[in-house]
């Protein structure tokens, strides 16, 4: 095994991004290049001690600015799930099952607690719960594990790494299949042109189809690079503290530069390949608007999470200020966008009148009783008359009620 592989074998394989990298393997590569070994909250002191022993370097204290990561598992409030599949796409190990417009759920035995599924959820129906005690590997004598415990921890990391690699391989196969289908359609169109017209036109069509397929593949790759760099930037923004440390700020600047470079490459490919039949892309103003909406959603989630965990007042004030800036940025982006402003009508909701609600509830019950008795032919007339009298009295009270 190479040094990077041995380092990666000690990492927890949550792929959470709290270290500032898009996964455990890139962080292992960073450590092999001299990066600090204390940036992994899920691994904690166990990972730091293992890395220090492997690399023959001093043991460091965990970098608490990257947050804490106790043993936890994602939980979806299924009654509120709208089936958007965004959490399924965000899960790095395919631990969420479901389908479009159908309820999603988490596979408890597979979830690593990375919490990457929380931010994309548009209805905020995902929360992190403590991992059941039966699934938490015990810690005996500090970091002195028995042989069976070490084997169990290693097996758990290897299993998570295997699922992560299998997911990436599946995504690559799907992308290769789509590319092959596009190329086949282009070649079929060229062959049809060659058989229906003269050979020269067929050859020209075939060359043009090959150029179109190559340009389409390059454009597709550029879009993937933009999406990956955007995801890495957003993941780091979510994982870093507020305000970020100097080192974190430097990493954010690098990630922002990579994202902008990927966007510039994509724009160049779109401009030099006007004949490629690709999906229409959003204008720059729309892209800024979408980015502003994403930033606003992230700031809201961060503030809500801090409020839930009863964070210090200084942190709440900083997050509130960041939220206000994100709201202003969204207003500016909406003003610069070519889309018309939504026609919103503010409706003032009246406070609920508990007494009126009680009267209407009684009327609904009385109406249901009358309807039920009327459906039965053998209902005694006296009982039916009594039910109708109850309904009449309930309707009278509702009509005569005057709000205070």
TrEMBL record:
Residues 1-57 form the 4Fe-4S domain. GO terms for molecular function: 4 iron, 4 sulfur cluster binding; electron transfer activity; metal ion binding. Keywords: 4Fe-4S, Cell inner membrane, Cell membrane, Coiled coil, Electron transport, Iron, Iron-sulfur, Membrane, Metal-binding, Repeat, Translocase, Transport. Residues 162-184 have a biased composition (Basic and acidic residues). Residues 155-198 are annotated as: Disordered. Residues 252-376 form a coiled coil. It comes from the Bacteria. InterPro entries: 4Fe-4S_dom (IPR007202), 4Fe4S_Fe-S-bd (IPR017896), 4Fe4S_Fe_S_CS (IPR017900), Elect_transpt_cplx_RnfB/RsxB (IPR010207), RnfB_subfamily (IPR050294). This is Ion-translocating oxidoreductase complex subunit B.
């Amino acid at each position: 095994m190479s040094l990077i592989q041995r380092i990666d074998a000690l990492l927890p394989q949550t792929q959470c991004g709290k270290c500032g990298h898009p996964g455990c393997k890139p962080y292992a590569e960073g450590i092999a290049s001299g990066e600090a070994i204390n940036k992994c909250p899920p691994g904690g002191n166990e990972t730091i001690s293992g890395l220090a022993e492997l690399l023959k370097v001093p043991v460091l204290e965990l970098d608490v600015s990257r947050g804490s990561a106790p043993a936890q598992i994602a939980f979806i409030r299924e009654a509120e799930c709208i089936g958007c599949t965004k959490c399924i796409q965000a899960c790095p190990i395919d631990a969420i099952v479901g389908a479009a417009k159908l309820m999603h759920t988490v596979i408890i035995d597979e979830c690593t607690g990375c919490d990457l599924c929380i931010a994309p959820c548009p209805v905020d129906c995902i929360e992190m719960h403590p991992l059941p005690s039966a699934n938490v590997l015990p810690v005996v004598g500090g970091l002195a594990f028995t042989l069976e415990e070490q084997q169990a921890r290693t097996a758990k990391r290897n299993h998570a790494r295997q699922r992560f690699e299998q997911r990436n391989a599946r995504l690559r196969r799907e992308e290769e299949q789509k590319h092959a289908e596009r190329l086949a359609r282009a070649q079929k169109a060229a062959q049809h042109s060659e058989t229906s017209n003269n050979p020269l036109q067929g050859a020209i069509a075939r060359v043009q189809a090959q150029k179109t397929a190559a340009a389409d593949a390059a454009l597709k790759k550029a879009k993937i690079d933009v999406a990956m760099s955007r995801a890495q930037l957003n993941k780091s923004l979510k994982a870093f503290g507020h305000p970020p440390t100097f080192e974190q700020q430097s990493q954010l600047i690098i990630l922002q530069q990579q994202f902008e470079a990927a966007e510039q490459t994509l724009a160049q490919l779109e401009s030099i390949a006007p004949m490629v039949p690709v999906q229409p892309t959003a204008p720059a103003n729309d892209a800024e608007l979408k980015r502003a909406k994403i930033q606003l959603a992230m700031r809201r989630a961060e503030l809500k999470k801090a409020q839930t965990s009863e964070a210090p007042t200084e942190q709440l004030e900083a997050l509130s200020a960041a939220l206000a800036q994100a709201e202003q940025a969204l207003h500016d982006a909406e003003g610069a966008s070519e889309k018309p402003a939504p026609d919103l009508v503010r409706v003032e909701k009246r406070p609920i009148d508990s007494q009126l609600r009680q009267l209407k509830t009684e009327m609904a019950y009385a109406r249901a009783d009358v309807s039920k008795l009327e459906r039965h032919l053998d209902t005694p007339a006296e009982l039916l008359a009594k039910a109708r009298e109850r309904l009449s009295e309930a309707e009278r009270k509702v009509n005569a009620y005057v709000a205070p």
